[in-house]
Each structure stands twice: as C-alpha cells, then as structure tokens.
Amino acid sequence: MMRQRHRTIRLETGARQALELTAEIRDWLDQIEAEEGLLSVFIRHTSASLTIMENADPDVMRDLTDFLARLAPEEADYAHDTEGPDDMPAHLKTALTQTHLSIPVIGGRLGLGTWQGIWLLEHRAMAHQRSVILHFIGE
C-alpha cells in the first residue's frame, strides 16, 4: 500500500559548515518503517544547500567548500550585498549545488553508494537556523 510521510529537521549550523545528515535521515526512515519508495530531501533556504558527497574522508568536504569559495569569492563586486559581503556568494554557491535531492529507498535502506552521504552546506559566515524537509512516498 502506497503511503506518504514527512518530517522537518531544524538545525543550527555553524559558519560555513558542512553537516552530514545521513544518519538522522536513516533513523527517520527506520522509525516510519519505510521499505520501498522515494525520499525527497529539500532545504528551505537560498544561502545553504544540499549535496551527496563522499563521507569517508573529511578532506573531500574541505576541498569542496574551498572550491566553492574560489568560484564565488566574497571580495567580488556584487550588486546584492544586503546582508553583508557573504550574502551573494552564498546564493551563488547554492545555485551551483542543490536545494533538492531524490534518493531511492530499497529494502528499507537509502539507495546510496558505499561512500555517499547526504550533506547540508552552510554558505554564510554566521550560524543560522535551517530547515530541511524530508518527504517519503512508497511502501
């Protein structure tokens, strides 16, 4: 029988922090007894984002955040700087990554590869309250 469930995760992020959400999401799927279906993960912000990335070596996330900083530097001359010099670069980093992920659930488990993890990327220079919506549809 097809069913739907949802949950909102509220997080306090640190400055320019990468937070792995995989374990918390797996726990929620266990709680709702998800077996087969599709999980959507959506972040409700324009200056933080989501990605699926390696979760074994912390250097991967450091290299990713350093790369994004080079692509969207704070020193550039942006017209939009309403909330400070990190404002527009944060929006650009979000545009270069993702605000929504779709992940299959197979046999009650996330259909991720061996080294894949689900990450929230905080692109702002200050801590923020962030909301991530999980939505499962399936059996």
UniProtKB/TrEMBL annotation:
First and last residue of the signal peptide: none
InterPro entries noted in UniProt: UPF0047_YjbQ-like, YjbQ-like_sf
NCBIfam families linked: TIGR00149_YjbQ (TIGR00149)
Membership in a protein family: Belongs to the UPF0047 family.
Protein name in the entry: Conserved protein
Organism name: Tepidicaulis marinus
